Amino acid sequence: MILKSNYQKLIGLSFSFLFMLSLIGLSVGLGYANISLIDIIHSFIYFNTSNEHLIIQTVRVPRALIAASVGASLAVSGVFMQTLTKNPLASPGIFGVNAGAGFFIVVAVTIFQVGNLQAFAWISFLGAAVASLSVYAISSFGRDGLTPLKITLAGAAITAMFGSFTQGLLVLNEVALEQVLFWLAGSVQGRKLELLLSVLPYLIIGGLLALIISPKLNVLAMGEDVAKGLGLKLGRIKIVMAIVVILLAGSAVAIAGPIGFIGIVIPHVAKKFIGIDHRWLVPFSAVLGAILLLSADIGARFIIFPQEVPVGVMTAIIGTPFFIFIARRGFNGQ
């Protein structure tokens, strides 16, 4: 069902936002140690050093906020990549952005012994940028230029290459393997609030840029010839779009590691509700991305309780069938 009027879209966005907030509350309350709503409220008003309050403030709240931020960032990155490449399969995970950012962080840890959180963010951005430019350059070669199929194949190749390099470095350095294994699995478990705060400025800048240029994406979606005819500066817009993807996807990988499929699934789900108007698609995708990752993280705590499954495994379980469906529809002309 597509919400047609702006009023309906606003109501839908508001309900989605409230649902996201309720999931944040559930994420704080549910887990190995069940915590009541009263304890959650008291931890903010009358904080003491009890186990419950410490769990809430140092573990559960950062985990929930990180899950929401990462989910929103990956979803908006997927919207921008699909619009830029006109490929329904485009996402940071499929196009090597996550793998490139991950490889650069592993290099920093294994070879240069980098451990600074702020440095992780910049290194992640660099890896995301290198991977993005590599995929774009490789897929632009040939007579037909850039096509959805070529850019998908180039993304798969870059992802495999960086993944192989990453595994090779970790095999040679077992100490580094212990340091980054939790991060490579793609998880929000055990992440500190300081890690989110270290990349928060980049998330805010990327999000604001996404909202500011979202009306121009409606013009770009009509085709480059039409966009040029309407006076759109394509080169400038594409550069800003690339910056948005690098800031959001790079920050998400720096925080939680490579979590896949959110950037594929959420843009298509959002379009089913509000159509292709990017002025609404961007905020809807952000909220729905946060909802998906929060839900996956809550489910990951109980699927093999009392142990936890990395949330990247949960998103893969959800996203793989959807990826196959979109691939068949996208390359077979609907």
UniProtKB/TrEMBL annotation:
InterPro entries: ABC_BtuC-like, ABC_transptr_permease_BtuC. It is a multi-pass membrane protein. It holds the Pfam family FecCD. Keywords: Cell membrane, Membrane, Transmembrane, Transmembrane helix, Transport. It is found in: Cell membrane. The chain crosses the membrane at residues 7-26, 61-81, 93-112, 119-139, 151-172, 193-213, 239-269, 281-303, 309-327. One of its GO terms (cellular component) is plasma membrane. One of its GO terms (biological process) is siderophore-iron import into cell. GO terms for molecular function: transmembrane transporter activity. The keyword Transport applies. Its main location: membrane. Belongs to the binding-protein-dependent transport system permease family. FecCD subfamily. This is Iron ABC transporter.
